[in-house]
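Researcher: We're teaching a course module on how sequence relates to structure. For the next exercise, students receive a sequence and then see the predicted structure as C-alpha cells, so they can try to spot secondary structure elements on their own. Here is the exercise chain.
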Amino acid sequence: IPIAAVEGMLEVGFLSEGAQFLDKFLESYSESPEIRVLAAHTWSAISKVQLAAGQLEEAHQSIDKAISLAPSQPNDYWNDYFNLGYHYHKRGQIEKAVEIYQNVLKAKPGFVDGHINLGIMFYSTTQFQKALQTFQLAAQLAPDHPEVLLGLAQSYEQLGHRQKAIQSYQKVLQIEPHNTVAIENLSRLSNPK
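Model: And here is the predicted structure for the students to work with:
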C-alpha cells in the first residue's frame, strides 16, 4: 500500500471511528516501520488536539503511544511531551509536570527549556537547592540565557547567597536591560535597609 494511501486511511479511519481505529490498524500492520512512524505522527497530532481541549490525561496517553511506536525518532514527540508538562504546570499539577520534565530531560539532556521549566517547578515548591542545581545545569548549556540567569539569581537569593544573586541579576541586565524582575531585585539587594 502506498504511504500516501495509508495516511489517508489513518485520517479517515480516525475521524469516523476514533482512537480505536488506530489500535486496530496497528494490529494489522505493526511489523511495518513506515506504518508505525505514520501512526506515531497521528497519535502526536491527536495529542495536540487533546491538549487544546484541555484533555491532559488523554493527551498524555496519546504522546506515550507516539513515543512507543517510533522510539528511534523521539525528538518528534518529546516536544509534545514537554508541552504536556507545561499544561500540567499551568493547571497547578506540579508533581505531574516535574515528572514529565524529568522524563524529557532523560531523553534530551541538552534541552534548555526543559531545565528552565523544571527549575521553575522546584523554585515554585520552595525546593531552592534543587532549583539552583537545575538552573546551574541549564547555565552550562546556555550561559547567557536570561531566564536561566534569572532562575540562578532568584535561587541564590533564596539560599542566602546574596553576592552570587547580585552577580546573576547584573548578568540578566547586561542581556535584558529592562528586565523589571532583575531591576527590582537587584535594587533591593544592593540597598539593604
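Model: If you want an answer key for the exercise: Residues 33-52 form the longest helix (20 residues). Confidence is low (pLDDT under 50) at residues 1-7.
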